[in-house]
Task: inverse folding
């Protein structure tokens, strides 16, 4: 698999942590505050079906953007074989967190993020050449050991099918790579 939906990247950062902003903390849109604990960190995840002879590894860097009005995520899969950039922001007209995900492949996505029972749920519509995938849904959860667990499903050729499953951990030495 060389095309990762934004849902995978988003899942890296989703947790149930709450943070109280200090006076010296840079401003962030209040709707984005639940994601603050993940900012300025790099996360590395291995896919459930990854094998040493065929690794499947994703690296994502989360940053405050646009003077705190958005969150920017850069990610790369397998040292730049595939990658993308995402902007998450509050859409006042939709009263929802919305994201735009731009990829190095021939597709992009637009999605929404909601919180249900402490889990982060993403749903995105895929535009472009995706081998029949038109939508992606994912649920992510911060586990007690600090791992972000991500599980997705794809709407492919009109049928919902299992997607990817990934475990991410913070890794300050990991690098996002674009070719």
Result:
């Amino acid at each position: 698999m060389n095309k990762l939906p934004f849902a995978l990247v988003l899942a890296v950062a989703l947790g149930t942590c709450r943070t109280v902003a200090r006076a010296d903390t840079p401003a962030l849109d209040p709707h984005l505050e639940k994601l603050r604990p993940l900012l300025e960190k790099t996360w590395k995840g291995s896919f459930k079906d990854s094998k040493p002879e065929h690794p499947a590894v994703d690296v994502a860097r989360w940053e405050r953007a646009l003077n705190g009005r958005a969150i920017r995520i850069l990610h790369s899969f397998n040292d730049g074989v595939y990658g993308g950039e995402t902007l998450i922001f509050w859409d006042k007209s939709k009263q929802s967190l919305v994201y735009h995900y731009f990829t190095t492949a021939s597709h992009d996505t637009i999605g929404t993020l909601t919180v249900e029972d402490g889990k982060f749920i993403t749903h995105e519509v895929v535009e472009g050449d995706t081998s029949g995938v038109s939508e992606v849904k994912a649920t992510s959860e911060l586990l007690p050991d600090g791992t972000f667990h991500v599980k997705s499903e794809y709407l492919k050729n009109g049928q919902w099918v299992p997607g990817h499953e990934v475990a991410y951990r913070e890794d300050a030495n990991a690098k996002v790579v674009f070719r």
Notes: The chain has one domain: 6-170. The domain at 6-170 is CATH 2.40.128.20 (Lipocalin). Confidence is low (pLDDT under 50) at residues 11-21. Helices lie at 6-12.
